[in-house]
Amino acid sequence: MSKKRSVWGLGAVATLAALVVSAPFMVGALAHGVPGAAGDGAAARTRGHWVVSWTSMPQLTEPANLPPAPFTQDNLVLFDSTLRQTLRVTTGGQHIRLRLSNAFGGAPLPITAASVALPAGGRAGVSGIQAGTSRPVTFSGRSSIVVPIGAPVVSDPLSFPVPAGSNLTVTLYLAEGQASNNITSHPGSRTTSYLLSGNHVQDVDLPGATPVDHWYFISGLEVWTRPDTAAVAMLGDSLTDGRGSTTNANNRWPDQLFDRLHARPGTAHVAVVNQAAGGNRVLNEGLGPSAVSRLDRDVLAQSGVEWLFVFEGINDIGTAEATEAAQKAVADDLITAYDQIITRTHAQGIRVYGATLTPFGGFTLYDDPQGTREAARQAVNEWIRTSHRFDAVVDFDQVVRDPANPRQLLPAADVGDHLHLNPAGYRMLADAVPARLFEQR
Fold first, then answer.
1. How many domains would you assign to the chain?
2. Closest Cα partner for 51 from 267, 227, 249?
């Protein structure tokens, strides 16, 4: 693995409209060169491999983010309910498989039926699907499955062409519901999902469905694709999860980076997968497990990941006491944690890129009058820039800070709370990442 290291600021801009295609579908035996349910042999891998194309970081659902009544009852969620969700594909192919998660469920998760389809109009966050595109999903040859407590499941491969940049609809039906109020979800979906009583897995429209801006149970989509296709996993918090982005517009900074990469021949086959969550921390649990504890699950165990991008740590600084001793301790511990993340990830042959932490001056929960948290941010950023531990560094701080007041965000990038960015600010982050970091070596 190359240890050349660089620091980048602003980069080039490119955009690409998402493609939606209607194509013949096949269910059953897969095309030549694609592994079946029996296993992924070495000979098959020379013709292609599985690459993760979309993810949502699993976490325990807070009470306020549980499905609304009547879909949540005492110790029972989504009884006799259909759940329809959309996700964005970031590398395309002819064959797909789904990942579902019961990582935080308090009871087994019985999935009665599942299907995939193309969404109406090819759009994200819609309840309708294109007629004739719905196909059943099976698990080890079965149309239903019970996901054990704490476990994931992977569906059987399905012949279902999906182009990069397109949206995909996943519909689940739970006849029995999940017998617990502890369930697995990704609350910060920035994408609308739909709930409807009864079995409507194959229905084209869901009239009267209840909209919720959360993902439940789905944690990944894998695509069988060419051998040189690979994924970059984004490890982060709400700034990567997209707080301040536009619901159903897919304009978080990783989405906008994908648009740039997809528009370039040298990086058109790179998948960009978002493993971030609002409130997440590097060192300790916050909203979801800490970055150091979830690294194996969310990065190292993901199919086809060749790069890791780390942009996280602000919540560790912001939630530590505003004293010199506490802030020195959290800065030192963050540096150690980054070093450990790099060591563990390099051991798997994955390159690790780091980003400096962006300003939070004026964000009242974190910005203390004495500036002790700002001093910790500066100390951490200095290490990120100068330690030579990351394979490359992108200086997000430089990109979005206000030159007239470097402790604060540029007004044009600030969503208004002085911590999170608006879509234009997220575009600035995406443009600062050099596409050549993801060119195949």
1. 2
2. 227
